[in-house]
Amino acid sequence: MNHINSRLIPVILLIFIVSAIPGKSIADNKFPIIDSLLLSVDSSAHQKEVVQCYLSISSLADSLRDFRSIDIAENAVKHALASSSKELISAGRFNLAKVLMSKHFNAEAMDNLLLALELFKQLKDSAKTAQTYHLLATLNNSIKQYAPAKRYIKKSLEINSALGLFNEIAGNYHQSALIYKASKQYDSALVNFKRSKDMYARAGNQTYETASLIESAYIYQDLKQYDKALEFLFGSEILCINYNNFDHLAYVYRKIGIAYSQMQMYDSAEVYIRKSLALNTEIKSAIGISRSYFRLAELFTIQEDYSAAIEFLLKAYKTPHTPKNQFSILQYAEKLSEVYAKISDYENAYKYYMTFKSMSDSTAVNRNYADAALKNLQYEYRQEKAATAIDHKEKEIKMRNYIILFSVVFFIIILTAFYNYIRFRSRVRINNELENKVALRTQDLNKETAGHKLAKQKLSRLTDHLEIIREEERKNIAFEVHDELGQRLTAIKLYMFSYIKKSQSNDSKQDEKAGNILKLIDETIDTVGDISTALRPPILDSFGLAASIEWLAEDFQKKSGIVCDLDIDLSIETEEHNKVTIFRILQEALTNISRHSKASKVNIYFKKTDGYCQLTIEDNGIGIHPDKLKSTSSFGLFGMNQRAQSLGGKIVFSGNNSGGCTTTLTVPASRQDS
Fold this sequence. Notes:
Blueprint: H1 3-20, H2 24-28, H3 30-40, H4 47-63, H5 68-83, H6 86-102, H7 106-123, H8 126-142, H9 146-163, H10 166-182, H11 186-203, H12 206-222, H13 226-242, H14 246-262, H15 266-283, H16 286-302, H17 306-318, H18 326-342, H19 346-363, H20 367-418, H21 420-503, H22 508-535, H23 538-542, H24 544-560, E1 563-568, H25 576-597, E2 601-609, E3 612-619, H26 626-630, H27 635-646, E4 650-655, E5 661-668
Parallel strand pairs: 1-2
Antiparallel strand pairs: 2-3, 3-5, 4-5
């Protein structure tokens, strides 16, 4: 071995030793150690050893969540490119992609993985090619590109199967299951987790064998099948006990507790979380202890035992953590703020949220959420402080008033005994004060009345705005249902028809079933059309209000059997919002007639006079009782009245001489008229 290589051997050995040493005191010193290692890499040394050192240092820095890991990995690629060695370039690209993925720089990671893949293929390095395919699948899954993710993991599985690498095959199955889980294909996910569990068992990798069982349990928890979830978690418990894996066993106990909590079996949940706490304490796992405290705090928060929740959150918050686990402290600070806010202790809530805010800013975690929540908390904190100050001020004023009143009364009594004139003057003065107070109170009442009127106007405008938003949302949903769902059902019908035509079975029962399926698809397409039309009739946007009224009357007559006569001015044009509101009022009126009136005929008139549109609906039913018009539970009538007021119009309900009911809507033809 030459002199240059021997110089770099201690550097490489030191990197692996530092990476392997656990403990808080060592972890705190790893960052300056990284600086020392970087200074030890001689840029004039042999490129191969320099690249290897940079790769090792970047992995160490990445494990400590040090953003310099990207720069170090890029240095490795730079030196690899200078060496023109495909082996070094591919290794550098692969390592840089892993570091970029951990920092969520997905686009750059994808580019480097694809470059590394081409080089591994050229080098005919099957194992590395399979690893790269696996990493590409993982990256695509994280950005919700499920189709390429499935394609890449399939290629990785094919290569690893050919090489007979059981552990890697198990990993492929595990990643495939994660992809199916992310894309909501739970049955396929469960099948692949079963395969990965079996393969990990065959490879003797009990840690990931347990992980496959736990992931299966997560799926059943998402499906709210908690009994099945517990079955898999208890299976994980048995594995951990058999393999003496107490670190994982503590984790499993905590997950069992969470499952029981979701089932609202809080006593059982507390038992298992405390088991996790005891085991983590025994194995001296600081992060495990703090997570157990945190879960206990969540459990007591659900049960509204906030004092116990705060006690355990403070224990979790004060548990020592390594720099790698700083995210946990951030989470505990946020939860402490939330619980203190629940008991209106805004001072402590504000204090811990400021801690959360500063930490989230420094780590670029949840910054937008922190800003929004902090503003709300600051407002509540200021309000509480202001309320306290006002309370103190009011007490001061009351005390001062008592003293003044006592002095005045005493003074009046003394003067009354000696000077009747002064007593008379004193009474005049008191009467004047009372009159001033009455005048001031009258002014205050007038201001309050004006404030109520303004609030009512604002509420009316808000109702109008919400109605516009709701109508727009109905329109969007109708278009989505009609275009997306309708097209997909049509495509399914074409595929089914093509399949039936190709199969041409002589089995009459099969043909009958196929015909029933096509009939069911047609009925579903019709149902989709009905739903879309009910949400937002296309005719309203395409042909205007008059045509929409004709269509609505025809549809009402067809569905209810009640005869509709129309007298409509087809030339009436009105603004979009007015058009939609008038249509919805007519729709609600016809619905009320079909439900309650027992009518056999309805007359609808739509005219325009002097800048106003007038819609009249007459029926020959049983009429409406006056008490119904005043009832607060008549939401349909109330809603119609609110819609009319939002347009600056009015709606009147009245009875006919022959029975029945007449509804008359009068609104301005345009907002300018309103």
